[in-house]
Specification:
Number of strands: 15
CATH class: Alpha Beta
Low-confidence stretches: none
CATH architecture: Alpha-Beta Complex
Strand order of the largest sheet: 8-7-9-14-15
CATH topology: Creatine Amidinohydrolase
Strand content: 15-25%
Shape: globular
CATH superfamily: Creatinase/methionine aminopeptidase superfamily
Radius of gyration: 17 Å
Order of helices and strands: HHEEEEEHHEEEEEEEEEEH
Distance between the termini: 28 Å
Helix content: 25-40%
Structural class: alpha+beta
Number of helices: 5
């Protein structure tokens, strides 16, 4: 049984949050493996196979595979592809590419969902900077996930940080979401907003926070495959995401990776257990 502050929002007990952290660990380990493995000459379908094996070896199921007909275990979005890129054996990674990998896993009925952007070989300083801005925007949004804050506080923190860093596009057509016994649940989490507006955050609420930052404008379009989203101006994009629970002690990052240990401590978030 779930407690509900709003009929559309699933609030988790501490035990259910613990189960979501177990699913999140599988996603975290899979993304770590992909970051360590991805290199020039590999295809995005190669990465998909590695991810599926990693998830299934942990007795979990890839969240994405078959989701509304999606064919892959990950979304693999290269360069100007923003999100929802389909893994393909014809998509060969080149030195200097960047690839956003979105990964989800289901363990005992609970979902974990996280994304990172990976540099392939030697990438430009401009690409590195955009990736840093996007990831930091995610952390700024997560930091607002405290009791009594509002969804608008999350979006405002993300938007205002991206704006403060230069002429980056903050994608508005896509955003974060609730997560739990389904991958995508209420509420929708915008990457822009007004402080103090929107749904109030409640203990047990679990959200995926995921900004998408473009080197050019914020405007995007969908390709004819009806999945892949690209920047309209052809400039590159980055995507970072964590699933996070609202707790009495602050934001608990359910998909935390080992590389996040120092950042989580610096921000004073609860230790997710690495």
């Amino acid at each position: 049984m779930f407690r509900r502050a709003d009929p559309s929002v699933q609030l988790k007990t501490p035990e259910q949050v613990r189960k979501m952290r177990e699913a999140g660990r599988i996603v975290a380990r899979t993304l770590e493996e992909l970051r360590n493995t991805a290199r020039p000459g590999m295809t995005t379908l190669d990465l998909d196979a590695i991810a599926e094996r990693s998830i299934r070896d942990a007795d979990a199921v890839p969240s994405f595979k078959g989701y509304h007909g999606f064919p892959g275990s990950i979304c693999a979005s290269v360069n100007e592809e923003v999100v929802h890129g389909i893994p393909r054996d014809t998509k060969v990674l080149q030195n200097g590419d960047i690839i956003s990998v979105d990964c989800g896993a289901i363990l005992d009925g609970w979902h974990g969902d996280s994304a990172i952007t990976i540099a392939i070989g030697e990438v430009s300083a401009e690409d590195h900077r955009m990736m840093q801005v996007c990831e930091e925007a995610m952390w700024r949004g997560i930091a607002e996930m405290r009791l009594g804050r509002h969804l608008g506080d999350i979006g405002h923190a993300i938007e205002s940080y991206i704006r403060s860093q230069g002429r980056y596009g903050n994608v508005q057509e896509y955003g974060g979401h609730g997560i739990g016994t389904e991958m995508h649940m209420d509420p929708h989490v915008l990457n822009y907003g007004k402080p103090g507006k929107g749904m109030k955050l409640t203990k047990g609420m679990c959200l995926a926070i995921e900004p998408m930052t473009n080197q050019g404008t914020r405007h995007v379009a969908s390709l004819s495959d009806e999945w892949t989203v690209v920047t309209r101006d052809g400039k590159r994009s980055a995507h970072f995401e964590h699933s996070v629970a609202v707790t009495a002690d602050g934001p608990l990052v359910l998909t935390a990776r080992e590389e996040n240990r120092v950042k989580i401590a610096e921000l004073g978030f609860p230790d997710p257990g690495f």
